[in-house]
Specification:
The complex is a heterodimer of chains A (116) and B (113).
Chain A: E1 4-7, E2 10-14, E3 19-25, E4 33-38, E5 44-50, E6 56-58, E7 64-68, E8 73-78, E9 87-96, E10 102-106, E11 110-115
Parallel strand pairs in A: 2-11
Antiparallel strand pairs in A: 1-3, 3-8, 4-5, 4-9, 6-7, 7-8, 9-10, 9-11
Chain B: E1 4-7, E2 10-13, E3 19-25, E4 31-38, E5 42-51, E6 54-57, E7 65-66, E8 76-78, E9 87-94, E10 103-104, E11 108-112
Parallel strand pairs in B: 2-11
Antiparallel strand pairs in B: 1-3, 3-8, 4-5, 4-9, 5-6, 7-8, 9-10, 9-11
Chain lengths: 116, 113
């Protein structure tokens, strides 16, 4: 079964600084990978997804992630943080559920704080 | 607008009082799923459904029931809620084919006293 590890439950950056949120997954077989964002009191919104078409994936709001098979990583980055980026971010990987269907396995989340 | 809706958004109830949280999607998705979100644990799958009348357990199904009588609806039923089911619940859907990303509802915050 797949697992996802997000390093750092809380990350704090200054406005304008680089955002780096780390995600490692467990499988050696390249899966589907996703980053979701959750703003306060809202549901989860898809930021970007990796589906094996390209290793560098661009998403919404200036975020991107790079798939590195050798490191089993899918870290999320943004060159310059904005106050509106403050939210919780979840990395997820597709996995096979009981019965053969696929499901999403989520990391525990990283709460991003952006300081003025 | 393509969306997943959940009702109610907030619910406070007492131990043992049966409740249902509704979920509906208008995207004609075959696959629907329920998750609970708890601090420090991320999202964990409760139940999922591949299509009408086809449901299966996720990682944390104890204390929950679901049904899928129509493609668009996937209600979550707590027949005898307990305080450890206090949580934030999300419904999600996706097409069976494709890249597997799921579309989430706005969440239901449940408190069981």
């Amino acid at each position: 079964a797949q697992s996802v590890t997000q390093l750092g439950s809380h990350v704090s950056v200054s406005e304008g600084a680089l955002v780096l949120l780390r995600c490692n997954y467990s499988s050696s077989v390249p899966p589907y990978l996703f980053w979701y964002v959750q703003y306060p009191n809202q549901g989860l919104q898809l930021l970007l997804k990796y589906t094996s078409a390209a290793t560098l994936v661009k998403g919404i709001n200036g975020f991107e992630a790079e798939f590195k098979k050798s490191e089993t990583s899918f870290h999320l980055t943004k060159p310059s943080a904005h106050m509106s980026d403050a939210a919780e971010y979840f990395c997820a990987v597709s996995d096979l559920a009981q019965g053969g269907s696929e499901k999403l396995v989520f990391g525990k989340g990283t709460k991003l704080t952006v300081n003025p | 607008e393509a969306q997943v809706t959940q009702n109610p958004r907030y619910l406070i109830t007492v131990t043992g009082k049966k409740l249902t949280v509704t979920c509906s999607q208008n995207m004609n998705h075959e696959y629907m799923s329920w998750y609970r979100q708890d601090p420090g644990l991320g999202l964990r799958q409760i139940y999922y459904s591949m299509n009408v009348e086809v449901t299966d357990k996720g990682d944390v199904p104890e204390g929950y029931k679901v049904s899928r009588k129509e493609k668009r609806n996937f209600p979550l039923i707590l027949e005898s809620p307990s305080p450890n089911q206090t949580s934030l619940y999300f419904c999600a859907s996706r097409p069976v084919a494709g890249a597997k990303e799921q579309y989430f509802g706005p969440g239901t915050r449940l408190t069981v006293t």
